[in-house]
Amino acid sequence: MRSYEIAVVPGDGIGTEVMTEALRVLDRVSSEFGFGLKFRHFDWSCETYRKTGRMMPEDGIDRLRDHDSILLGAVGFPGVPDHISLWGLLIPIRREFDQYVSLRPVRLLPGLTPPLRDGASADVDFWVVRENTEGEYSQVGGRQGTGTDQEMVVQVATFTRRATDRILRYAFDFSRGLGRPNLTLATKSNGIYHSMPYWDERFAEISAEYPDVATSQEHIDILCAKFVLQPERFDVVVGSNLFGDILSDLGPGVTGTIGVAPSANINPERVHPSMFEPVHGSAPDIAGQGIANPIGQIWSAAMLLDHLGEEEAGAHVMRAIETVLGSAGAPLTPDLGGRAATGELGSAIVNAIGERG
Ligand code: ATP
Ligand code: MG
C-alpha cells in the first residue's frame, strides 16, 4: 500500500482545534482511497517557548526533514512577541526547506456570502502565487540615532535574480497547467524606485518564453481595488513576499471569511518537504471555545494530498466541503453565519467523504 509520513504541528490557539478535524478528514479519505498516512506529532508552540525558551528544539528542522509533507495549524499567541513565533518556527521552516512558493487559492465556495455584493453575481476563483523567501521580509537594516532628532530606521528589501525568476517561472507554469493562461503581476514600479521596475523587467523577459500565457500588470494599490470590484478578471496573480501576503488575505476577505482559506508553502523541486497551513492565525479571541471554522485547515490538507500525488483524494475532500456548505441546514460555524461547533462542521465533512458518488 502507498504510504506517506506527515509531520503534524498543530501549534497554538485554534490551530489545535482545527487540526483535529483535518486529521479526521485525512484518516477517512486515505482509507476510502486505499493509501496510508502516518502522522508524527510535534507539539511546538508558544507554550513550548514559555517552557524552553525556544519555539522548536535546536534540531527541529532536521526532525521534520524526512517527512513527505508538513501540516501546520497556526502559531503565535498573546504574550509571545510575533517576531519570536514567526522567526522561531514558521520562517526557518519556509527558508530551510526552500519553500519559495506560497500558493493560495481564493474561491467563493457554495454557501459563502461575500460581504460586498450580491453573492449570486460574484465570480471569485483565482490563485495568488507569492514569493516566500526574500524581499521585504528581511532582517537587514536597523536603527540609528535612537532618541535624537536624527533618528532613522532602515529596512532593506533584497530581490535576487534567482528568487525573482524562479517564482515568476513557477507562476507562468502554474497558469499554463491550470488551463487558464492569464497571469497578472502585482507591482508598484511607479513608486518603488529600484525593486519593482526590476520585477516588471524580469516579468516581461520571462513572458517571452510563454507566448501562450496572456499577461497584465497592476500596481498593488489599484490591484487591491480590483480584487474587490472585479474579482472575475483574475486567474493567477503573482507578487513579491509583501504584496503576495497582502493579496492573499484580501482575496479570502472578499469571499466573506478567512476561516476557509488554505495555503501551501511549496518546494517545487521536492528536495525538501512542503508545508500546508490555513491562512488564518491562532485567533486568540475565539480560541478554546470550539467555534473555529475548520475548513481552512481541511482545504490545506486537500492541497497536501494534491502535492503527494493523491489528487483524486484531494478533489474528493473539496467536493465533500462543497457538498456540506451547499446543503440546506448545514452545521455552519459562527463566522459563516451559523451556530455549529468546529467538531460538528468537521463531522459533516467526514461523513460526506463516505458518500462517494
Ligand atoms: P496572524 O498574525 O497569525 O495571521 P491575525 O492577527 O491575522 O493572526 P487571526 O488569528 O487570523 O489573526 O484572526 C483574525 C480574525 O479572524 C479574528 O477575529 C479571528 O477570530 C478570525 N478567525 C481567524 N480564523 C478563524 C477561523 N478558522 N474561524 C473563525 N474565525 C476565524
Ligand atoms: Mg494574519
From TrEMBL:
GO terms for molecular function: D-malate dehydrogenase (decarboxylating) (NAD+) activity; lyase activity; magnesium ion binding; NAD binding. It comes from the Bacteria. Keywords: Lyase, Manganese, Metal-binding, NAD, Oxidoreductase. Pfam families: Iso_dh (PF00180). SMART domains: Iso_dh (SM01329). The keyword Protein biosynthesis does not apply. Gene3D superfamilies: Isopropylmalate Dehydrogenase. It catalyses: (R)-malate + NAD(+) = pyruvate + CO2 + NADH. Residues 5-349 form the Isopropylmalate dehydrogenase-like domain. Its EC number is 1.1.1.83. The keyword Protein transport does not apply. Its cofactor is Mn(2+); Mg(2+). Belongs to the isocitrate and isopropylmalate dehydrogenases family. PANTHER family: D-MALATE DEHYDROGENASE [DECARBOXYLATING]. This is D-malate dehydrogenase (decarboxylating).
